[in-house]
Amino acid sequence: MANRGYLGEFELMILLAVIHLGDEAYGVPISRELERHRGRGVSVGSVYAALERMEAKGLVTSTLGDPTPERGGKAKRYFTVTRAGLRQVHETRRVLSKLWRTLPEMKGENT
Predict the structure, then answer these.
(1) Whose CA is closest to 63, among 53, 48, 77?
(2) Which residues are paired to 78 by β-bridges?
(3) What's the first-to-final CA gap in the chain, in angstroms?
């Protein structure tokens, strides 16, 4: 049986934000994108911690941009989803969609 990895909720949201942001995918915009869709705060530190774990797993890669004066000469770290990351996004979506479709109707459900 193939070893398939499924993404956790936060990892999946981060990968989707990175895909959505494209060339502007670094900590602050990723955090803001998640806040906008989740309706609650997301710390930049938790985003970077998750990105570092995902980079170690080969799901994202990062590059350093040019240093900028507004950041005190510090470079931004930009992220891109790898092919392996994209495969896991699609596989997780497939599994979650299948699970949602097979849920029985629950009594008192408000739809």
Answers:
(1) 77
(2) 63
(3) 38
49 contacts 30 by C-beta, under 8 angstroms:
no
Please report whether residue 1 resides in a domain: no
pLDDT, tens only, 21-70: 999 999 999 999 999 999 899 999 999 999 999 999 999 999 998 877 77
Confidence of residue 110 (pLDDT cuts 50, 70, 90): low
Chain centroid to CA 15: 2
pLDDT at 80 over 90: yes
- The domain total for the chain is 1
The answer to whether residue 58 is domain-embedded is: yes
- The CATH number for 20's domain is 1.10.10.10
Which segments of 7-82 does DSSP mark as H helices, in order?
9-21, 27-38, 44-56
- Whether 35 maps to a domain, the answer reads yes
Nearest CA to 10 out of 40, 58, 78 is that of: 40
